[in-house]
Amino acid sequence: MIPGIDPKIDIAFKKVFGSERLGDLTAALINAVRSPPPEHRVVEVEILNPYSERMTLDDKLSILDIKARDQSEWIYDLEMQMLALAALCPRALYYWAKSYAEQLSAGADYTRLRRTISICFVNGVVFRDWPDYHTCFQLLDPSGELCLTEDLEIHIIELPKFRKALDELTMPLDFWLYFFKNGEVLDADALPRELDRPEVRKAMGVLKMLAQNDMERELYEGRLKAKRDLQTLETERRMAEEQRRAAEEQRRAAEERWRTAESHWRAAEKQRAEWQQRYEAADREREAAKYEGEAAKRMLVRQIQLCERLLGRPLSEAVELAACSLDELRDLAERLERESTA
Question: What burial letters (b/e) apply to 313-325, b meaning 16+ CB within 10 Å?
Answer without folding.
Answer: eeeeeeeebeebe
